[in-house]
Amino acid sequence: MTRTLTDAAMAQVKALGHPVVTGGEEPPDRETLLRLAAGAEAVVCTLTERIDEEFLDAAGPGLKVVANVAVGYDNIDVEAATRRGVWVTNTPGVLDGATADLTMALILAASRRVLEGDRLLRERTPWVWGPRMLVGLDLSAGATLGVVGYGRIGRAVARRARAFDMKILATPTSRPDDRDEVEFAELPELLERSDVVTLHVPLTPDTRHLIDAGALRRMKSTAVLVNTARGGIVDESALIEALRTGEIASAGLDVFEGEPQVNPELLELDNLVLTPHIGSAGTATRERMCGLAVANAAAVLSGAAPLTPVK
Ligand code: GLV
Predict the structure, then answer these.
(1) In this model, does residue 300 exceed pLDDT 80?
(2) Residue 51, SS3 per DSSP
(3) What is the pLDDT averaged over residues 3-7?
(4) How remote is the CA of residue 154 from the centroid of ligand 1, in Å?
(5) Which residues contact 44 (CB under 8 A, 6 or more apart)?
(6) Which protein residue's CA is at the shortest distance from atom 4 of ligand 1?
(7) Alpha carbon distance 37, 23 (integer Å)
(8) What average pLDDT does the segment 261-271 reach?
(9) Under 8 Å between Cβ of 274 and 259
C-alpha cells in the first residue's frame, strides 16, 4: 500500500491477513516507493505514484495486481503491466456523484464570480449593491452546457445541470442514451455553442492538450471552462493567455498539468477558481474508492479475477 487509506479500508486490509507495508500519509519518494514494492504480490496505489517498467521491475515477478484508488489510471503503464500478466484495476462508478457535485461547484463559482465576491469582502473593500456589480453568467437563462466526454461522470454533471435549466450538448458517445435530453455535437461545434464547457475525458495521448489555443479561440468570450478530469487535457499556458485577454470569461480548475505544482501565473488570475484535486473527496465516496481498490487486490490474491479491471 503506497499510502494510508481510510480507517475502514485499512481494517479491511488487516482482516485479509496478508503481510502489509504502507507508505504513509504522504506520497513516498521514488526510492522509498521502489523499496516498498520489492516482492509485493499486490500493490494498492494512488494517482500520485507512477507505475512504470521501473516500478514493475522493482516489484518483481510475484506481482499479480496493481489496484489504483482512482478511476483515472494515466499514472499506470497498463501495457507494461499487461505484458507481465499483472492486472490493473481502477475505481469506476463509485465517484461519479462526488465529482459531478464538485464540477457544479466550480461551474457555479466561476459563472457567478463567487470567489471574487469573497475576496472583495475579505479585503475590506468598500461596496454597495449595484446593478452592474459582479455580474456573471446566468446558468438558468437558457445557458448551454457542453460536456466533453459523455461517460458516467459527464452524464452525472448533465443531470445536475438540467436541474439548473441548462441545455446539454455533448461530444458523441458510443453509448448513446435515448432517455437523456441531450444533443450531440463534435468538439469544434460544441466549443462554439456552449456557455459552459466541462471536461470529462480520460488523459491519453489523444486527449493531451485537447483544449489548446485553437480550442479556446472557438469558445465564446462569455464562456466558462471547467476541468475536473486531468490537468494535461488543457494547455495551461494557452488557458492563462485566454483568461488574461478575455478570450473566455472565466474558468474553474481542480486539476493541473504539473500537479501538485500549480503554475504561479494561474494564481494571479481573478477570473479563475482553483481547488486542489478534490473531485472525489467526499467522505462516503472515499470509503467506496478505497474499499473497491482493496477488494480488487483481495480478489486477485485469492485467485479470482478483480472486480473492476481496466481492460
Ligand atoms: C481522481 O482523480 C480519480 O481519477 O479518481
Answers:
(1) yes
(2) strand
(3) 97
(4) 14
(5) 1, 2, 5, 13, 67, 69, 293, 294, 297
(6) 72
(7) 10
(8) 98
(9) no
The number of residues in the chain equals 311
Q: How far is the CA of 254 from the centre of ligand 1 (A)?
A: 11
First to last CA, the chain: 22
8 Å CB contact between 72 and 90: yes
Average model confidence (pLDDT) across the chain: 97
Model confidence pLDDT, tens digit, residues 202-216: 999 999 999 999 999
Q: C-alpha distances in angstroms, 133 versus 126, 127, 136, 158?
A: 12, 9, 9, 29
Cα separation, 7 vs 16, in Å, equals 15
Q: Which residues are catalytic?
A: 230, 259, 277
Mean pLDDT of 68-86: 98
Query: Could you tell me which residues come within 8 angstroms of residue 157 by beta carbon, excluding any fewer than 6 positions away?
Result: 100, 103, 104, 145, 147, 198, 200
Beta strands in the chain (DSSP E): 42-45, 65-68, 87-89, 144-148, 167-170, 183-184, 196-199, 224-227, 250-253, 272-274
CA distances from 163 to 86, 95, 127, 142, 289 (A): 43, 20, 32, 12, 27
Query: Measured between alpha carbons, how far is residue 290 from residues 90, 271, 276, 298 in Å?
Result: 10, 35, 19, 12
What does the pLDDT read at residue 181?
A: 86
Question: Using CA atoms in the order 186, 189, 195, 197, what is the torsion angle rounded to 10 degrees?
Answer: 30
User: Per-residue pLDDT averaged across 233-240, rounded?
Assistant: 98
CA distance 77 to 73: 8
- Does 311 score more than 90 pLDDT? no
Residue 212 Cα to ligand 1 middle (Å): 22
pTM for the model stands at 0.97
Please identify, by atom number, the ligand 1 atom nearest to the C-alpha of residue 230. Answer: 2
Q: Which residue has the cell 473566455?
A: 248
Q: SS3 of 128, please?
A: coil
Which residue's entry shows cell 494517482?
Answer: 47
Task: Output DSSP code: residue 44.
Answer: E
Q: What's residue 176's pLDDT?
A: 66
